[in-house]
Amino acid sequence: MVRALRDREQRNSQGNIARVFAAPDLDQLLHDLELVRVPLEKFELQRDRKLEAPLQMFTLPYADGIIDVSTYDRSDPNRALILPTGFSTVRGSYGWFTSDWQHGGPKWLYRRDLAETFLKLALAEPSAELK
């Protein structure tokens, strides 16, 4: 749904029709959703076809402090990526530890943050050109 909305917004901007949603917000939401959706659905990294070389991956340190390092190789038929999950008592939300290998490395994405971004876009005032 978000991808279709973004594509519609891009077509509108090319036809000099005002965008309803702020482009950076919509693009960031789509990017964050892909970081979670692809590993959950396909057990692989988002856009792993663009990987030019195997990627070093690591797990979160557990109570014993050991960090396990592994290699994600898109040509390995046995590869699998299972996102670590957790609950943030600060955010009060469930989250996924994603690997944003194209833009800055690993980061936590929380369900509440994604929901708030959806609401922000849905409740945003239309752009000035539409009024």
What is the SS-derived class?
A: alpha+beta
Average pLDDT works out at 76
Report low-confidence residues grouped into runs of 5 or more. none
Describe the sheet with the most strands: 3 strands, antiparallel
Radius of gyration from CA coordinates: 18 Å
Helix and strand element order? HHEEEEEH
Helix content: 25-40%
The end-to-end span amounts to: 25 Å
Q: What fraction strand?
A: 15-25%
Number of helices: 3
**Count of DSSP E strands?**
5
Brief overview, please?
By secondary structure, the chain is of the alpha+beta class.
List keywords for this structure.
5 strands; alpha+beta; single chain; flat; 3 helices; 3-stranded antiparallel beta sheet; 131 residues
